[in-house]
Specification:
The protein has 124 residues and is mainly alpha-helical. It has helices spanning 3-13, 43-48, 54-57, 62-67, 69-74, 88-106, 113-123, and strands at 30-32, 39-41. The protein is globular, with a radius of gyration of 15 Å. The structure holds zinc ion. Residues 33, 35-36, 38, 45-46, 50, 52 line the site of zinc ion. The site of zinc ion (ZN) has 8 residues, from helix 2.
């Protein structure tokens, strides 16, 4: 997969770019974050405050995340025209979405986190 597609789709749509990870949904809002389970989250939660990808955010220079993180991540097109030159912003957005998509698909047949939690409670 071209990680720039992920970055571009998140940038232009503001949605969880799950179709690029072979998921059959393109949500704006999730009932719960697939990584940290915070409720009613948009993709900016994942990129700016989700505890589930804090290790990825550690690679971004902190001065950018403290000042205007969305501007830093999305204001400009990826700098280098050569797709072989890494852009940390593109890599961060794509990695965070890949992690979230994997966790989301791991929910399997459970359409909503609440269904999964009910199932877990019944099993206890
Ligand atoms: Zn989260």
């Amino acid at each position: 997969m071209d990680i720039r597609q992920v970055w571009s789709l998140v940038r232009c749509s503001g949605r969880w770019a799950f179709p690029l990870f072979n998921l059959q949904c393109f949500p704006d809002l999730l009932e719960a974050c697939p990584l940290c389970h915070e409720s009613n989250v948009r993709v900016d939660h994942l990129l700016l405050s989700c505890s589930g990808c804090i290790h990825l955010r550690a690679q971004i220079p902190s001065e950018f995340l403290q000042r205007s993180p969305l501007t830093y991540l999305f204001a400009d097109r990826p700098g280098p025209c050569d797709p072989h030159i890494p852009d940390p912003r593109v890599e961060y957005v794509a990695s965070a979405l890949a992690l979230a998509a994997a966790a989301y698909s791991a929910l399997g047949d459970f359409e909503h986190i609440s269904d999964l939690l009910e199932e877990v409670q019944r099993a206890m």
